[in-house]
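Notes to self after the call with IL:
- keep both proteins in one doc
- input above output, always
- annotate only the second one for now

Protein 1:
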Amino acid sequence: MAKASSESDGCRRVLEFYSGIGGMRYSLMKAKVNAQVVEAFEINDTANDVYQHNFGHRPFQGNIQCLSAADLDRYGADVWLLSPPCQPYTRQGLQKDTGDARAFSFLQILELMPLLLHPPSMLFVENVVGFETSDTHAKLIEILEKTNFITQEFILSPLQFGIPYSRPRYFCLAKRKPSSFVNECLNSQLIQSPRPLFELFDTVANDDSSQEDRHELLQSCQPIAKFLELKNHINDIAVESAALMIGLSNNTSRTLGKGNDHEYDSLDQYYVHPSLVERWGSAMDVVYPDSKRCCCFTKSYYRYVKGTGSLLATVQPMKRDKTSLKEQRLRYFTPREVGGFSLFSRLSCILVSQCLGICPHLPRLQTYILFLRNLSFQSTLISSNGMHC
């Protein structure tokens, strides 16, 4: 009955696989797609606590490898959102690909697709750069072609959306025929370009891009100061809240900005110890409030300082070089700031923090990991490629 009602009002029925804290669902909301998430699937208990707190629904926490074609058919979903584990494909990992147990569930889902009586009409797949050259990717494309889908694939970074965060990711959009994309010239292609996303829809991009293109892209990004959650009292640098950036009202922003011990943490715990600066300073990526780029954060951020993500200089030096790092009083970006770089709203980030407050045993490192496992700038890609009814 629920399915018939959804179909009659033009509402998309959505399955959200590997839901994490709800990045895909939040993207649907931001893209203003008329959609209902009929089920989410996530194995991580803490992520499910956050998801339930934010959306009022707890994802299915069983092993999705046990799902049958009949199980999936019963949901009557016409949109699947999938963000499978990236560890089998990361450049820093063992790259075991299809031989990695963490890839098995996604491969099982693909194997079920030809067996479905009511297959989805749209798919959206997200993963790490490196997935596009994997055997798992080859299997994905093979199954999609076999089940009558057309695809458009992208390597995109938040930089292309004006966000000063270098984190390229792989995306695949698929529609089952007779549905089609508006920009058919991008069909069956993997598009990788430093140009802003909407320029890609005007012309077919290629990998031949000049250094000037990349420089112009960085110049189009907002400064890091836009994403800092607290005022830097050392240099009296006023920073605009992420709430304003994503369009919350001034009143809402002021309410969120008042803060208390439960909403905001003191920045003291985020400063890098001088001994670490002395030892690893030459290997650190240091950025400033007016910088328009920071490096990708890894799950070891805050635990290690070398190669895990950028550090923020809270004191402006006369000369920006490695010789003055101790005087620049470096700090880590906070979990909410990291979430902001992935375009989670400030309100969403606070809800995560409030929910995590229910679990006082949870290490701060886990807070970073929850954000880093989720993205939200997909909303632009979803909206631009016709997931609207």
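Protein 2 (the one to annotate):
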Amino acid sequence: MPKKGNRVENWNVSYEQLGTTYRESIEDIGDLVNNLQYEFVLEDIVRFLPSSREGKVLEVGCGGARTSLYLANRGFDVTCSDYAPEAIRLAKDNFAAHGARGKFVQDDLLHSILPAESFDCVMSFGLLEHFEDIRQVIGCITKLVKPGGIQIHCIITKKFSTQTLVNVLFYPYRFAKDLLRGNFRGIFRRSYRDFPHYENTFSAWEYCRAFREEGNEVLRCEAGGILFPFISLSTGVGKAFLRAFPVSLPRLIRVTDRTENRVMHILSPTFYIVCRKQG
């Protein structure tokens, strides 16, 4: 059984203090990474869905629903669902701040009130790693997809990756900074920043097998977020990278994150999977 991480008992706590979190302007490395992810999703919807602009898109576990907002701004009919009321509040705030239209549903994915086979595309970002039984949740998602429709998922996993390397690299800097500021409580744990919220560590191949077992054809299984540690850089350093490599950096991220390569999978902190519902 894959090892577990830290279970999130109350997602409202994660969202209740957040204001709007979406922007398309690229001001730092994090903006670049986010906007490239939006572009990747749009590219795959257009590639794998005929008449994609007329289709219905659902984002489950939407959080701030930033990818849905990106699609809504480009004419897609989007629905955003999440179990946490504060996530729905944040998603609505993001849409309202940009004058976008969308539907919002507070919903328990495992016992969904959404109609079966009613969406052309269902997507999630940082959701599936929170379930111990991935076949169950993938089955529930697949029920919402029309036959011939697609799913797009970005999944974070607990394994060795470039994120591990950057955590080690930045540990002395963070430790020294807290030490000088007198922030002694929890200094060892806090200095090693890691993504704490996951409840499984399944491999990309195990996820792909689960998608197939639930009646899907896997279209893409890519490494993702290999250059993700760059967003751990300070704002000033991140902006300097963008100024120095305004063209080559996005191209490099495309090479690392859009390549189905075993070496990239070894280094990646995330998986990006696209599949089509058969039938």
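Annotation: Residues 1-5 have pLDDT under 50 and may be disordered. The CA atoms of residues 152 and 222 lie 11 Å apart.
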